[in-house]
Design brief:
globular
């Protein structure tokens, strides 16, 4: 149980530091992907929280904070949030590595924030779930509810893009790709989500229950 608290504590500190660093860089005018313009601060902050990367890191921060206090946490809402955090941050890491990393040319603090948000936090979150759980926690209902957030994010992103012409990622940029290609790309990412949900449910069933030992005091 102490080992779990240490891991979740480290994860919480790292993700919080990464989010704060990225927010400071955005306030100061740091680069996000390949943005060349410099919109007003309010617009930059709205765009920051519109990135799935940022939302998935926030989910990891919330879950890690809960698990730091109680490594065997449970409950319907927690199960959905935990599954969403693990799968979303894993998708974030995979999409960044295969689709977005070739587009980036970052240096200094911008490169550090990118590394933390897209590589370090995904590894900490995924390995922590794999080794420490908590599990079993995944049911078909949990998966169904966990799908709501990614679907809502996609709808919000496409709607906001129609309104202001800005899309957070090139592979869903309707203005450049058109709707057929954008929806095809979105379907591919959705299939990745479904595959990872299925693999997580299988691992949740086959791996030993975790954490072990006496439960901490509520």
């Amino acid at each position: 149980m102490n080992r779990a608290r240490v891991w979740h504590g480290v994860t919480f500190v790292v993700v919080l530091a990464a989010l704060v660093l990225q927010a400071v860089l955005v306030v100061q005018g740091g680069r996000v992907l390949d943005d060349a313009d410099m919109p007003p601060l309010a617009t930059r902050l709205l765009r920051l929280v519109s990135y799935f990367t940022i939302q998935s890191n926030i989910a990891v921060a919330v879950v890690s904070g809960i698990l730091l206090r109680r490594p065997d946490a449970d409950g319907r809402g927690f199960r959905v949030l935990r599954l969403d955090a693990v799968i979303a941050i894993t998708v974030t890491g995979l999409v960044h590595f295969f689709l977005l990393r070739p587009l980036l040319d970052l240096e200094g603090a911008d490169a550090m924030a990118d590394l933390l948000l897209h590589v370090v936090v995904p590894l900490l979150a995924f390995v922590g779930w794999l080794l420490l759980g908590p599990r079993p926690r995944i049911t078909a209902r949990t998966i169904g509810l966990a799908l709501i957030w990614p679907v809502l994010w996609l709808g919000y992103t496409l709607l906001m893009g129609e309104i202001n012409g800005w899309y957070p990622y090139p592979f869903i940029d309707v203005g450049t790709l058109g709707y057929p290609r954008t929806l095809l790309n979105a379907a591919g990412v959705t299939l990745l989500f479904l595959l990872l949900f299925a693999l997580a449910a299988l691992a949740d069933r086959l791996l030993p229950a975790a954490p072990t030992g006496p439960s901490p005091r509520p």
